[in-house]
Amino acid sequence: MIRIGIFGYGNLGRGVECAIAQNKDMSLVAVFTRRDPKTVSLINKEVGVYHVDDVLSFKDKIDVMILCGGSAKDLPEQTPYLAEHFCVIDSFDTHAKIPEHFENVDRVSKKAGNVAMISVGWDPGMFSLNRLMAGCILVDGADYTFWGKGVSQGHSDAIRRIDGVLDAKQYTIPVDSALERVRNGENPTLTTREKHTRECFVVAKEGADLARIENEIKTMPNYFADYDTTVHFITKEELDRDHSGIPHGGVVIRSGKTGKNLENTHIIEYKLRLDSNPEFTASVIVAYARATYRMKKEGMSGCKTVFDVPPAYLSPKSGDELRGSLL
Amino acid sequence: MIRIGIFGYGNLGRGVECAIAQNKDMSLVAVFTRRDPKTVSLINKEVGVYHVDDVLSFKDKIDVMILCGGSAKDLPEQTPYLAEHFCVIDSFDTHAKIPEHFENVDRVSKKAGNVAMISVGWDPGMFSLNRLMAGCILVDGADYTFWGKGVSQGHSDAIRRIDGVLDAKQYTIPVDSALERVRNGENPTLTTREKHTRECFVVAKEGADLARIENEIKTMPNYFADYDTTVHFITKEELDRDHSGIPHGGVVIRSGKTGKNLENTHIIEYKLRLDSNPEFTASVIVAYARATYRMKKEGMSGCKTVFDVPPAYLSPKSGDELRGSLL
After folding, report:
1. Upper half-sphere CA count for residue A131 (Cβ side, 13 Å)
2. Which chain A residues are closer than 8 Å to B138 by Cβ?
3. What is the pTM of this model?
4. Chains A & B: contacts with CB separation below 8 Å
5. A16-48 burial, b if ≥16 CB within 10 A, otherwise e?
6. How far apart, in Å, are the Cα atoms of B216 and each of A19, A52, B22, B167, B200?
C-alpha cells in the first residue's frame, strides 16, 4: 500500500480523496488543513484531519504528500518546505514561474533524498507532455493549444471584483472555425481574439448599472479586452441551478510535415472533455503519486516533472502485464 | 551527432531517411539491404548502401541501428541478431507476439550491454502509450481504439490473392455513430461490425467474374466477413490516380468516471490523421532513436518499449529548456 497524505482540503483535495478511493494500491493516511480540523469533514470518515502544524509527526507514516494549495501563495512556500521531510507532488500552474519553483524544490529534495514532483495535472501536465512528444515526432510543424469549453476561475473572480456584481461565472470557449483550420493542416497564425471567446454569466446587485458592469467587463485589460466577450445577466437562482459545475477541457494539436519535399501533412490531436476540472487534475496527480513512490524506491531524488517519468511508473501493473495487454 | 544506420530500405526505410534529415542532431551513416546495393537508390546520394552481410563492419560507426523490415519474418530474427552488436530499434507490430519478441531481444541486448527498443510507431507505440496513461488516470472506465480512415496493407494483399484480381486497395473506416457514442461518454459495448466498415477498390482482370470476386471478398473469414464491406471495381488508371497514397490514422478514447459517487464523466481522446503511414511511423521511430542513444549513454541496457522511456529523452533540448518552454 502506498500511504498518501493530503495537504490542503479544497476542491482539489476533495478530488484527490475521491481518486485515492479508486486506486486499490493506495490508502489515505491523513488530511492536513490550516483551518480548525474539527470543522473539516472528509468523505471517508475513518481518515483523520490534522492541523498543518502537526504534519512533521507524520514523517514516517506517509509515502507521498499531495499538496492541494494554490499556485499564487501556497505552493511556492509549501512545496520546498515539505520536500525536506516527505516525497511530495504538487500542481503548480503558474507557467512563467515553473523554472524558479523547480530550482527551489530541486535543491531541498535532492539534499533530503526525496522525490518531489511539480506541475502535475493537465495544463501543465498532460497537455505539456503532448506538446513535447508531438513536437519531437513532427519536427517541422506548429503547436496549438485551445482551452475550453470550461470555467476559468481567474476570470470569474475578476468579474466578481467589479462594483455592483454579486456573483459570476466565466466560460472560455474555443472558436470552432479556428480549430477547423488547424485540424485541416493550414498552420494558421491566430490572434488571441481568433482562438477563444469568453461568455460571462453575471448576477448583479439590485439597482446596479448593468450597462456599466458590462462595459467594465468587456474592456478589462488582459482578462477580456482582447476577446469577443458576451455578458448575460441572470439571477442568483439561475447561476446556482445552471452554472454550479466546474467543467473544463481543451485540445493540443500539432500539425507537421514529412517527406522528401515535406509533401505529407500529419495531425496529432490530444483532447480532454472534463465534467470536473479539479477531479480530473486530482486523478492525474494520484497516478503520478504512484510514480513518485516508485522513483523514491529506486533511489532517485530531486525535483521531477511529467517529462521525467517513464509512463510505466504510473501503473500498478508489471512490465510483463503492460506489454501483454496494452502495447 | 547521433550516427544512425537503416537496416532494410522499403517504404519505412525511406521514411526514416526523410525523418533523419529533419533532425539536426542525427546523421545517416549507412543503409543495409538484402538486394544488390547498386540497385538501391537513396534520396541522399552521399550516404552509402551496403549489403546486409557487411553490417558488422559498422559496429563502431553506428550508434543506433533502425530496423525497417517486416514483423512476420524479418524482425523476429533480425532484432535479436543485431541487438548483440548494436543499439537497435524496431517497429514490431504483431501485438500477440510482443511478449515473446521482448524476451528474445531482452536476453541478447542485456548480455551485450546494448539498449534495444521494440514495437515503436503509432500502434503499437503512441496509441499504446495513450491507452496506458489514460487508463492510469481514469481508473474506472473503458478504452476504445478506432483505426482509419486509412489503407490496410494486409487487407489489400488479401484481396490481391483472389483469382481474377489484378490489384486492390482497402480502406478501414471508423463508424461515425459509434465514435459519437463513445465521445458522449455512453461507454457502449460495440461489436466488430459496429466499429469499422471496409471499403475496397478493386481492379479485375479482363473477363473476370465480378460478382464472384465481390462475394469472395465479402465472405472472407477474419478479414471481411465480420464487417460491412463495400466493393468498387475501377480501372488500373483510376487506382493509380486516386489511391496511390498510404494515409492512415485513428483514435484512442478513454471514457471514465470520478467523484464521490462516480457522478462525473471525463473523455480523453488521442487522434492521428496521417497523410503517410510509413513516414509518420518513421518519425516516431527516429525520436525514440534519440532516446535509445541517451539511455545507452546513461549505462542502461536491455529491451525497452515506449512504456519505459521518460518523454524528455525524445527531445534534443535540455531539461531547463523543456521546462521553460513547454511545461
Report:
1. 22
2. 283
3. 0.95
4. 207
5. bbbbbbbbeebebbbbbbeeebeebebeeeebe
6. 51, 72, 44, 15, 12
CB-closest option in B132, B269, B284 to A311: B132
Which tens digit of pLDDT belongs to each residue from A52-78?
999 999 999 999 999 999 998 999 999
pLDDT digits (tens, 9 = 90+) for B196-220: 999 999 999 999 999 999 999 999 9
**A200 grid coordinates:** 460571462
The nearest CA of chain B is from the CA of A214 a distance in Å of 33
**Partner residue facing A315 (CB), from B132, B265, B324:** B132
Contact check, Cβ <8 Å, B267/A271: yes
Count of helices and strands (H, E) across chain B:
11, 14
Decide if A266 and B284 are in contact by the 8 Å CB cutoff: no
> Which chain A residue lies closest to B306 (C-alpha atoms)?
A311
Residues A166 and A171: their CA atoms lie apart, in Å, by 17
Query: Cα separation of B126 and B284, whole Å?
Result: 8
Mutate to test the interface with B, among A264, A293, A306, A325 (most CBs of B within 10 A): A264
Contact B275/A265, CB-based, under 8 Å? yes
Chain A positions in Cβ-Cβ contact with residue B275 (cut-off 8 Å): 264-266
Element (H, E) at A86: none
The pLDDT value given to residue B5 = 98
Structure letter (DSSP) for residue B221: T
**DSSP structure class, residue A9:** -
- Select from A14, A137, A138, A244 the residue whose CB has the most chain B CBs within 10 Å, as the one to mutate to test that interface: A137
Over residues A149-180, the pLDDT tens digits come to: 999 988 999 999 999 999 999 999 999 999 99
Please name the member of B136, B271, B276 whose beta carbon is closest to the beta carbon of A314: B136
Give dist(CA B162, CA A103) in Å, integer. 65
Nearest CA to A295 out of A319, A314, A267, A317 is that of: A314
User: By C-alpha distance, which of B311, B310, B172 is closest to B251?
Assistant: B172
Q: Which three cell numbers stand for residue A154?
A: 481567474
d(CA A280, CA A180): 26
Contact B126 A133 (CB under 8 A): yes
* DSSP code of residue A52: G
Contact state of B136 with A18 under an 8 Å Cβ cutoff: no
User: Could you tell me which residues come within 8 angstroms of residue A288 by beta carbon, excluding any fewer than 6 positions away?
Assistant: A89, A117, A120, A306, A309, A314
Extract the C-alpha cell encoding A134. 508531438
Q: ipTM, 2 decimals? A: 0.95
Chain A residue closest to B135 (CA)? A315
The ranges of chain A with pLDDT < 70 are: none
Q: For residue B315, what is the nearest residue in chain A, using CA coordinates?
A: A136
Single-letter code of the amino acid located at A25:
D
Distance CA A81, CA A71 (A): 15
Cα nearest neighbour of A96 on chain B? B324
- In eight-state DSSP terms, residue A205 is P
Mean pLDDT of B50-61: 97
Indicate yes or no: CB of A18 within 8 angstroms of CB of B183: no
Closest residue on chain B to A145 (Cα): B326
Cβ contact B272–A268 (<8 Å): yes
3-state secondary structure B165-214: EEEEEEEEEECHHHHHHHHCCCCCCCCHHHHEEEEEEEEECCCCCHHHHH
Cα angle: A80, vertex A32, A280; to 5 degrees = 80
